[in-house]
Amino acid sequence: MTAGLVRHFRMKKTKVEAVRGVDMDIGDGELVALLGPNGAGKSTLFRMLTTLLPPTAGTATVAGCDITRDPDGVRARIGYVGQNHSAGENFRVRDELVTQGRSHGMTRAGAARRADEVLDLLSLTPLANRTPNTLSGGQRRRVDIAMGLVHRPALLFLDEPSTGLDPHSRAEIWDHILRLRRELAMTLVLSTHYLEEADRMAERVVIIDHGRIIADGTADRLRKDLAGDRIVLTLDNRADMARIAEPFDAHGDTVHIRVPDAATALPRHLRALDAAGVKVVAAQALQPTLDDVFLALTGRRIEQEAA
Ligand SMILES: Nc1ncnc2c1ncn2[C@@H]1O[C@H](COP(=O)(O)OP(=O)(O)OP(=O)(O)O)[C@@H](O)[C@H]1O
Question: Which membrane topology term applies here (predicted)?
């Protein structure tokens, strides 16, 4: 889908290399989460793939069309939900959707029918005659998604769809995103810096940092390959640490041991330590988070940077 995609910005004397050579292939019907800290280049990549920004170098084919040679073809086939609201403040939601349909060449009756369909799809029918400035953050986000769906795209880009929403609204947005996937078999590419969302919702996670892809796979695969499970033991007597045979990291009173499968390793370790007379007062089997994966790859944590 993309080959060597690059985007630089020039500002006076400095050059910002926002995207530094991205190669990515996304298949039909995939749900892909692009995960990275602030400034990683996610929005710039999206803006190139949705033809809002020309690449400095490289190529990309989106929904079968080249982003540089056939931007109109790309735009006709994709939907894009950016970080800014797409509907005007003071027009009724349904009217905005009809206008959007008309701008895609639909007849008035066709656009009205489609507006009602997308209102229903995003559970917005009761709000159809409200203006966006009277809606909650989560409701407005659903209007943004509805605007991106009017022309029936097969592929939808969502740039941080849940950022800034309270946990309840975030869960609601995700219900709707997953519904699009289930009921319309859409290809969904979204960006997020919420680690647990990428982990739970997407079957493929692409981690991006400083404008480059640094990992790509299922969350489970990334965890296993790049971070590994840990068991965490608290010993009754710190001096007993010297009697642990495996390599470990000590954090205060606790000992962290890297293992391939924490659930099966934990009882084995407890039995061995018991037999050696080492008293363990607490024990935990820990699966790494995607933040641990990011830490293993970069030495930094996404969560700290997002905060
Ligand atoms: N128009 C621009 N002019 C100059 N620099 C820009 C421009 N747009 C983006 N950048 C820079 O490019 C880099 C990547 O920004 P981008 O918005 O793509 O990151 P992001 O991963 O989407 O971050 P966020 O999660 O904060 O939205 C940043 O250093 C940013 O400051």
Answer: Peripheral membrane protein
pLDDT of 85 > 80? The answer is: no
Amino acid at the residue 193? H
Q: What is the pTM of this model?
A: 0.86
Of 299, 298, 211, 288, the C-alpha closest to 2 is 211
Q: Are residues 100 and 243 both part of a single domain? A: no
Q: How far apart are the CA of 241 and the centre of ligand 1, in A?
A: 46
18 and 159 share one domain? yes
Is ipTM over 0.85? yes
* Domain carrying residue 20: 2-223
DSSP secondary-structure letter at 83? S
Same domain, 75 and 170: yes
Quick: pLDDT tens for 176-222. Answer: 999 888 888 899 999 988 888 888 888 899 999 999 999 999 998 89
Q: Could you tell me which residues come within 8 angstroms of residue 265 by beta carbon, excluding any fewer than 6 positions away?
A: 229, 231, 257, 259, 285
pLDDT digits over 49-79, tens only? 999 999 999 999 999 999 999 999 999 999 9
- Among 223, 256, 278, the domain-final residue is 223
Could you tell me if 27 and 94 lie in one domain?
yes
Q: Does 171 share its domain with 274?
A: no
**Quick check: is 293 in a domain?**
no
- Please name the residue whose Cα sits nearest to atom 18 of ligand 1: 41
Q: In this structure, which residue's CA is closest to atom 3 in ligand 1?
A: 9
